[in-house]
Amino acid sequence: GVLKASIAMGRCMAFLQPTYVLVFTGLCYTTFLLFEILPRIESIHTFLGPELWGYSSYERDVLATTFFFHLFMVMFLISFRLAATRSPGRIPLDSSKDLSRWRDGNFNILKETETTIQRIVSSLEGTLGEKVRLLVQNMVVVERKKKYGYHRFCSFCTLYKPDRTHHCRICSQCTLRMDHHCPWLANCVGYANYKFFILTLFYALSLCTFMLVQMGPTWSKILHAISNHHKLHLLPVSSLYVAVLLLTPMLLVFLCFHIYLTANSMTTIEYREKKNSSDPYVQRRFQVAHLKFDKGYLANLRDSLGPFHLLLIPVFNGENGTYSGSTQKKL
């Protein structure tokens, strides 16, 4: 009924919000280029230009502004495109081993190990020490459904779910290491595009911060723009400044939140629905499964974002601690 209608409407409008992002980005680029960069270039070759416009009189400053603005813009667009178009990762069904695991549920887990895990997740007593960590790190599937310890199964895809996998009703598919469905990307954020999502936020924040700093001298003249007809050219810049000023703190908070999640090896779904759940059995299952993925702050960041020299480069790391062995390497 209502749920199906809302899902259908969401699919029909899926590409509107990414279009809004691209249109706003285009307006930012055009406005900053026409009303900030080009006047600065012109002021260098104009008598009293720098003093009249309030810009730096040094050509190297203008070149640096132009270079970094385009650098942040290009890196944002590349990251955004990859986050929006790259598949977040689907349940692998390429080999007979994959089919045996995810279609038939044959995980080759020893009966003794399975019994131990079911006992641990169904009981709220006992500590989760190093012995339990070593046990779960060598298991293909750790997460269990409900307190009875059953394997998780997707009734829509008719497949067993790898750890951290969830079904997205908008995408109509299961997503590996699903973080959330992002309407601004019209795509799920998951295993294979999470780094691109983080870099999209980072370069968007860098671009907005850079624009705010560079438009500071112009902003000081905005109060006079209405009364002084010679400065009506500042009105587009003032509108852009206000929009970017409102957007920047939201991007900062969102980026910091996801860095916190990444450092703690959590997804948005796990943070919202499991770690902070009012059901103690849900919390217990999360704590047990989390032992498999949590390697410490720096290792968690490296698993998701890659080695230090590739930290800010939009390339897929290939191994982010979500899976292990041949499954991880193949994905």
From TrEMBL:
Question: What EC class does the entry list?
Answer: transferase
Which residue numbers delimit the Palmitoyltransferase DHHC domain?
Answer: 150-274
Q: Which Gene Ontology cellular-component terms appear in the entry?
A: membrane
Q: What is its EC number?
A: 2.3.1.225
Which residues span the membrane? 12-35, 62-83, 196-219, 239-261
Molecular function terms from GO: protein-cysteine S-palmitoyltransferase activity
What family is reported? Belongs to the DHHC palmitoyltransferase family.
Domain comment from the record reads as follows: The DHHC domain is required for palmitoyltransferase activity.
The protein in question is named Palmitoyltransferase
Q: Which organism is it from?
A: Amorphochlora amoebiformis
Q: What is the lineage of its organism?
A: Eukaryota, Sar, Rhizaria, Cercozoa, Chlorarachniophyceae
